[in-house]
Amino acid sequence: MIPDYQTVMLPLLRYLGDGTERTVSEAVDAIAEEFRLTPDERQELLPSGASTRIGSRVGWARTYIKKAGLVESPRRGTIRISPRGVEVLRDPPARIDNAFLEQFPEFREFRALRHADTEEPPTPTDVETPEEALEDAYQQLRANLESEVVQRVKAASPAFFERLVVELLVRMGYGGSLRDAGQAVGRSGDGGIDGIIKEDKLGLDFIYVQAKRWENQVSRPEIQKFAGALQMHRARKGVFLTTSTFSREARDFVNQIDNKIVLVDGAELGKLMLDHNVGVSPVGSYEIKKLDNDYFVEE
Questions:
Q1: Full-model pTM
Q2: Cα 22 from chain centroid?
Q3: pLDDT per residue over 85-96, tens digit each?
Q4: What gap in Å lies between CA 199 and CA 180, rounded to an integer?
Q5: Do 28 and 54 meet the contact criterion of CB atoms below 8 Å apart?
């Protein structure tokens, strides 16, 4: 299991205890080795994909013990133990955490400045770093909005759902223009097909579309009917969208046929609508910044 960032603090300080200057990546590898993380755990990413979870936790552990004066950075991207850190290891505590670091005035000043600049949101658990807490909060807000969007789509009229599908496909780069796609989707009704759109603006290939604003689960016979319609038209690609869900048999079926059929259920529909700003609008944005070490390099 990936250790939390406070659990990492003491092992990280011990790793640096011989006084050798090491890179941050070396420290991450050493901590991963000490806690016997599996290859999957070492590669596990944060939701944003910006860094690994263990890398984030070691990074925040380093930041906190550095603010307390236990380690220092002699050069860009490196760390080594400080004289204060050596003193701490002479009579090491059972655990180094934020409460332990409060004894050092530099750390108390660091925490006070953070609270003075803005009302710092509480970290949900001691396991999460501030970065992880922010990402988890974002993911929770997004999940709630995705659910709300799908519920609104279910309550809309069939004509509205048709327009929504058209706009979503165009925002994703399919169907050419809104006008072209609007004329193509919702006009067929031919053998289980609701429309045919261009895969690209030049129309080098086409995608057949089926859209169901349903509450009930879409079962295998509906997908078989759609696949049969594709074969009848000698089509290779299709998208089946629904506001509900697909049965396991339906999903298994699309993996057993030659035609490429993509199934988009209500949950995936909500994600795509948020990703492409369909039915939602931004109300604010926050930039996560990091120190630009190159800026402070003097010639």
A1: 0.62
A2: 30
A3: 999 999 999 999
A4: 12
A5: yes
